[in-house]
Write a structure and sequence with these properties.
Shape: globular
Number of strands: 12
Radius of gyration: 25 Å
CATH architecture of the largest domain: 3-Layer(aba) Sandwich
Strand content: 15-25%
Number of helices: 14
Strand order of the largest sheet: 5-6-1-7-8
CATH class of the largest domain: Alpha Beta
Structural class: alpha+beta
Helix content: 40-55%
């Protein structure tokens, strides 16, 4: 049976939500993201703003220089998350085989549905628009690779200056033909450096992969060459993954001004450790590795990690490990632009004795366990912000 895969993508999701909340924004240049004076970046921008050359991930200060009248809105992630959940409910009504990629993007497999895939795509697009007022674009193909690229091609072909609302269909058997004229960076795994390497070998378009022999590509690019040639043929057998296992949890802070004060860094690390620890607890997870990320004033980034003898899930242990990493890797008085705490190597949590508790006497251990359990219980019942440590104030 020929597979029917849809790639669903909300058009400028954050901006579309803000227009629903503030109708006066429609047709005006605005962006959602951080403040320009605080090194903020553009998370999303309206199509009116894009006419000035503004793009996602651009520094907000540069965006304001390109468009002095640009209106900057702070992101409301709680609102976006709630609306994203409503969108995903609509998708799940069509099929249980939904793979959510991000807050505004998902794959759907509709092979078992009797309707044409193109009909189902327009049905989903119409339902999301009618029920939630949100524009979307879809790609339709026999696999995830081609469906995703189809969405990008469909959106790029719309020149109205408004939400594209595109539906791009790639008929079965026409995958390689559809991909052939596209630039090589349309394929997954081709970034700027790989594109330069490919260009040096005369490979500029997807069709160039088909003109080269498999042996030649393998010799020059190894496994990547084989994979890219397979992609160029439109081959992708990956299934829809309905549940995605978390591989890591992290929290980062970029400072508006470089920080040299050690106490400020410690306070931020404690807050980050609390957030990471909270996410571990909610997921019933523990981490084999704790890492610290530091970015210096020259934009160089350093990441250091520690693997304790036992997996950790407690915010105090995460904080202590992060402090040790900070002390051993930050030169005294060095200014910090960004600091982050992360946990990886996630496994199901099992109640174990802390590596720090092993050195403590029985009474201290009991008191600390009682304190941690009380804090966890209060946060579980009343929310993560219900109780804070005095050192955070």
């Amino acid at each position: 049976m020929v597979r029917k895969i849809l790639h669903f993508d909300l058009d400028a999701f954050y901006c579309a939500v803000e227009e629903l909340r503030h109708p006066e924004l429609k047709g005006t240049p605005f962006a959602v993201g951080g403040r320009p004076e605080s090194r903020g970046v553009v998370s999303s921008c309206s199509y009116a703003a894009r006419r000035f050359g503004i793009r996602s991930a651009m520094g907000m200060a540069q965006a304001v220089r390109l468009c002095p009248d640009l209106r900057v809105l702070p992101p409301d992630m709680r609102e976006y998350g709630q609306i994203s959940g409503q969108v995903m409910e609509i998708l799940h009504c069509l099929t249980p085989l939904v793979e959510q990629l991000s807050i505004d993007e998902a794959f759907l497999e509709v092979t078992e549905r009797p309707e044409y895939a193109s009909e189902l795509a327009r049905m989903v697009q119409s339902q999301v628009q009618e029920k939630l007022g949100l524009p979307s674009s879809l790609g339709v193909a026999t696999n995830k690779l081609v469906a995703k690229i189809a969405t990008d091609v469909g959106k790029a072909a719309v020149r109205t200056g408004d939400y594209p609302r595109a539906v791009q269909v790639v008929p079965p058997g026409r995958e390689a033909e559809f991909l052939a004229p596209l630039p090589v960076d349309a394929l997954w795994g081709v970034g700027p450096r790989t594109r330069e390497r490919l260009a040096a070998k005369g490979i500029h378009k997807v069709s160039d992969f088909l003109a080269a022999s498999a042996e030649e590509l393998s010799q020059q690019f190894g496994k990547l060459g084989q994979d890219l040639r397979r992609q160029a043929q439109g081959i992708d057998q990956r299934p829809i993954v309905t549940e995605r296992e978390a591989k890591s949890i992290s929290q980062e802070t970029t400072f508006a001004q470089d920080v040299v004060d050690t106490e400020t860094l410690r306070r931020v690390l404690r807050q980050q450790a609390a957030q990471v620890g909270g996410r571990l607890r909610r997921g019933g997870l523990a981490a084999r590795t704790v890492n610290l990320k530091l970015r210096w004033t020259d934009f160089t980034t350093q990441t250091r990690q520690t693997t304790p003898s036992q997996p950790v899930d407690d915010e105090e242990e995460i904080y202590r490990i992060a402090l040790d990493l900070l002390a051993s890797n930050r030169p005294e008085g060095a200014a910090v632009r960004l600091v982050g705490v992360g946990c990886s190597g996630l496994i199901p949590a099992v109640k174990q004795m802390s590596i720090f508790d092993m050195a403590a006497d029985h009474e201290t251990l009991a008191k600390e366990d009682q304190l941690n359990e009380a804090v966890k219980a209060l946060r579980k019942r009343f929310g993560e912000d219900a109780i804070r440590r005095g050192s955070d104030l």
